[in-house]
């Protein structure tokens, strides 16, 4: 299917998003909106309202929607939430959320352009997120900061876990599919003392899932073995007082699904040096290499003697989801998180709320940096190659404390709704990234600790100018302190310390007008920023890499964004058919956007973070839902993103660097879906069928794809997913399911890593092949 056809089918319809929001969809079996569609509730102004009544930048998936779509990973989430792109980096465990073109490059030292949250607490993404016992997931679009948490330039992804309920109950679920993939999870709700003390226990266990074959040793890679548990305690000692504490601990092992050598730079091109060196034409070196006379015991397991330049073509000739790499791919991660939310009603109209969070994550990964069986550079050197001691694996560890205090209420006879807040976060991240250099059989390491202390005050208020016209104004001011200290194993020298302080405002202004009870229009403008800092993978110097300043150092400037957004929302009927149809258009201007370029410094691969002077991102978002019959719901969504560097020249080591085309985001992405429900006779239960089709246009995984990073354009793809549920079998509370994802077994890629300057190769990460299986769930 052409994306233009899908775009034309849905271009007039979209969900309007403008003000930051927490959203929650109506629970399964909950109330329907007046139009007959399931009502979606949001708390954009810290009170529960219909999404159609508030200008919000959010798409929400309820617990029932997560089940219906079989959402268990970030990749599943991308196909379910319009406008959200989940991009992989060097492997399937290195993830990056992208909204409206805002993202974060790997090995940049930049904070995320899209900030993820769990239960209103920001957390870093250094491994995949456990998807179990969730109340909802939301994607908030556009600049954020005037209502909660950290300021961000692109948006936020919000995960809300299930909280304890008043009645005893729970669920247990198990799913098994091809690639030996097992997913089991469950929850138990325990009311300890009426409504005063409530407890909920939840956990998940997964295993299997390897889908990438390594020609080097015939191993299967990409399995994930996860163990995660969560305890949530809710205390309600008196009317108007509540306290909810959540503790979550997780441990993951398995292997990374590595990137494949997608495109190699030909010998003779400026960056084709490895294609020349590791070539059958380079004799006697190449013959000595194959005979094992250069590296001890090499080529143990070596399978291809055709040369580096022709490696991608050879791999593709061997089948889909195939790599050819001489490295270890173990992946280990563990995480701990505590969230405490306390709420106190001071009066009937004023509430004091505090949100405290602590998180710790540690991630250890192995992968082959050159994505090949040739021994010239990689993260880990096996015994068969390295003559000295083995290198440690690449690790990163983060520890974060945060606290947010809010005072919210209503005054002026309920016409003014307001919120005041203060936010503090202290984050610390440790990096250790070793590299083995095959040409000289030696190791180097990037080793540093970064710190960030951020303090902010913010306020937002909405005033009803008339019964139909509302004005919303919000502001935030943030103070940041950023530090970097080089570690004991740092290639740049241990103990060097850098520090900088930055501050800037964020703001929002919105007018919304209810033309009729069914139609609302709005106009919004926002501004926000992303702090600057230090890249731990570049030599320390205090001056940023910009068009005007080029010392070749590791300091980069803050990024600033402002946008304008307009939209219309409709919920009513088309004839007798319930219809929800919305449209939003936006334009964002960004100064000093933070992007990376991979370079060689003193013979070593490095990642330089550069401020690209000016960028413009514009587009539209559309969404439509209709119910032509009581048993059938149809939906479609489309997003179009036109991103461009309008002043694209920066400098790197005295040379101009021209950025473009804009990377990380396809111009078009869209989904069409259908849900059908068929009650069965007697006590047999109900059949529910879901099908969705997701299409994404081509995109570049490098922002230098038109200049020094050729071969970084990934093709478009279309995925078809289906699920059949037999619910409440014989009134037992048991649901059986059959599912298939990527029905046509489409080969597609989810991202990549640009390595032309360092390794003469561009690599890309595989998306999941066709997966299918059965599931069983019991609710009690």
Automatic annotation (TrEMBL):
Similarity remark: Belongs to the TonB-dependent receptor family.
PROSITE patterns xref list: TONB_DEPENDENT_REC_2, TONB_DEPENDENT_REC_3
Record keywords, A-Z: Cell outer membrane, Ion transport, Iron, Iron transport, Membrane, Receptor, Signal, TonB box, Transmembrane, Transmembrane beta strand, Transport
Q: Quote the subcellular location field of this record.
A: Cell outer membrane
> What is the species listed in this Swiss-Prot or TrEMBL entry?
Novosphingobium soli
As given in the record, the signal peptide range reads 1-23
Main subcellular location: membrane
Topology relative to the lipid bilayer, per the entry, is:
Multi-pass membrane protein
Domain (TonB-dependent receptor plug): residue spans on this chain? 51-156
Protein name, please? TonB-dependent receptor
